[in-house]
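The methods section describes the discrete structure representation at length, but only in general terms. The central task, working out the structure tokens from the amino acid sequence alone, is never made concrete. Nothing conveys this as quickly as seeing an actual entry. For illustration, here is how one protein appears when written out as sequence plus structure tokens:
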Amino acid sequence: MPFASTLSTMIASPLPILNDDPRSLGALLEFAPGAMIWTLIAFVLGLFVMWKFVYGPITTALEDRDRKVEDAISAAEVARREAEAQMARAKAELEKAQADARRMVEEATARAERQAAELARSADERAKAELQKARDTIAAEKRQALQEIRQAAVELTMSATGRLLQQKIDGQENKRLVEGFLAGAAKQ
């Protein structure tokens, strides 16, 4: 039983390498079918224990982490889409506000132009009215001045005629004659 002797040697001396026996190092390299079977059984049991208590929890933790990462990526993608939509809405509102502002400026400009035109027209009408009033006043004063000149001419003519004739001419009849004469002279 070479296995039993090797096993007893290994048990007796846990560090066969430190022994001075040259055979102890070669014993590790010898083929022993019984040791191979026990090694395989230990390996399978160790693999089962490792799978059950080490690899399983690690795999579960990695899967959970992957799921959390995928959820975070999905949430980030949803948040990105929402941010893009909100940015598009904000951009549309900004463009609408700019269009409203342009429209309001155009309306205010048009209103100001209309008011300026109305004020100019009103000022022009007032100026025309004042001009017409001044013309009417001038015409009235001209008529009055002409009336006064005629009156003075009538009186002067009557006075001159009275001196020529050496008598006083004061009658209404003579006054009408002189006025008619002056009116006829003014038309010619």
About this structure: Residues 140-187 form one domain. The CA atoms of residues 158 and 164 lie 10 Å apart. The chain has four helices and no strands. The radius of gyration is 67 Å.
